[in-house]
Amino acid sequence: MASGLYLTLLMGPMVPLPAPKVLMDAFTSAKVTVAAGSRSGFELIFTLADRSPLQTLMLLAGSTPLQTWRVVIVATVGLPQVLMDGIVEHHDVSPDAMTGTARLVVTGHDLTALMDLQQFQGLPFPNMGPDVRVTTILGKYAAFGVMPMVIPVLEPDVPVVTQQIPAQQGTDFAYINQLATENGYVFYLIPGPLPGTSQAYWGPEVRIGIPQPALNVNMDSWTNVENLSFRYAPETAVTPLVNIQDPTTGTTVPVPIPSVNPLSPPMGLAIPVPQRTEQMTTAANLTTSQALAQGFAKAVQTGDVVSGTGTIDVLRYGQILYSRQLVGVRGAGIAFDGLYYVDSTTHTISKGKYKQDFTLKRNGLISNTPVVPTRPY
Length: 377
Fold this sequence. Notes:
Elements: E1 6-13, E2 17-18, H1 21-26, E3 27-35, E4 41-48, H2 54-62, E5 69-77, E6 79-96, E7 101-110, H3 130-138, E8 146-150, H4 172-182, E9 186-191, E10 198-203, E11 212-216, E12 227-232, E13 238-245, E14 252-256, E15 276-279, H5 288-302, E16 306-313, H6 314-317, E17 326-330, E18 338-350, E19 353-362
Parallel strand pairs: 8-10, 11-17, 13-15
Antiparallel strand pairs: 1-2, 1-5, 3-4, 3-18, 4-7, 5-6, 6-7, 9-10, 12-16, 13-14, 16-19, 17-18, 18-19
C-alpha cells in the first residue's frame, strides 16, 4: 500500500493466520465501524476473477463450526493498531457479466458475535453480584484472547442464596448488556493491543483522559480535516427523575439527575439547562445505587447538545483517530472550539487511501480549556 500505510489481514478458524497472497491480490477495500457503547462491525470487499480460489475459501469459512471464521484487521500508520478482531457472518457475491469478475463482500461483527450465538436461559449465578457474573461469563472466551476489564459496581446487589438465585436471560451478549443497562454501564470490546487479543470493557462510560491531537479546520496549511460541521440541539437535553425511597419513613422522593458528573465533566462553559424532565420508570425496582447510575447514564446520553461530523485523511492527520476518547478542535470558532468526545469512527481503507468518518459530542458551547494538544504526547 502507500508509503506509511500498511494493512495486514489475518483470517482462519479459531486462530487467524496471515491471509494468503491470492486473497490480498483480490483485496479492494476494508471498512470498520467503532461506536461508543456498542459492538463494532467490519466489511471487506474483494474482486473475484472467474474460477477464483477465493470462492472455495469463503465456502470453507461458511461451513466451519459455530461460524468461527475469524478476521483480524491491523492498520499500520507509524505503529501497528488492531482495528478489528471479529467473526465473519455474511458473504455477498455480485457477478458482473460484462467483465467476467464478481464483487465479494464479507461482513461481520467483533467477537461479541460469538457471545450472541447460544441461549443460556436459566443458568444460575448463586451468591454473585453483577460484576462477578459478567467476569464469570467472559471467562468462557479466554481461548479467543478476550481479557475482562470489569469495573465493580458501587453498591453490589448480591442476593442471599436462600432467598433468590440470579439466573441468566438469553445469550451471553444479551445478558451482559442487560446487566450493564441496569447499572448505568456500557459494554464493548477493544481489539488489541496484540493481534488475537481483545479487552472486554464493562463499566461506566468515561469521558476523561489525555486528548488526541487536535482536528484543525479553516487554518490554511495546518488544516488536517477534509470537512467538519457542527449541530447545536439544546432541546434534546433531559433531566431524569429517579424515585428514591426513604428507608425510615417509606416516603418516595423524586431526585433530579444532572448531566455533569466526575466521569463526564463539563466540556463547555455554556451548558444549557434542560427544559424537559423524564421519569425513570425502568429504575422502579432497582437499588438506590442502580437507580442513580441509570439516571446518570440517561442524563449524559441526552446531555450531548453539541455534535460534530466530519472526515479526515489519516495520512495527513498523522495517526488513527480513536473512538471512545477525547480530541481537540481548533479553527471552528469560539462556540465550537475545544475538547470533544469521539462517539464513533468509520475506517475506510483501500489501496493507497485511508479515510475516517467521525462523530463528535459534548455537553456545552464555548471551550472551557485554553489550549488543546496539537501533537501526540
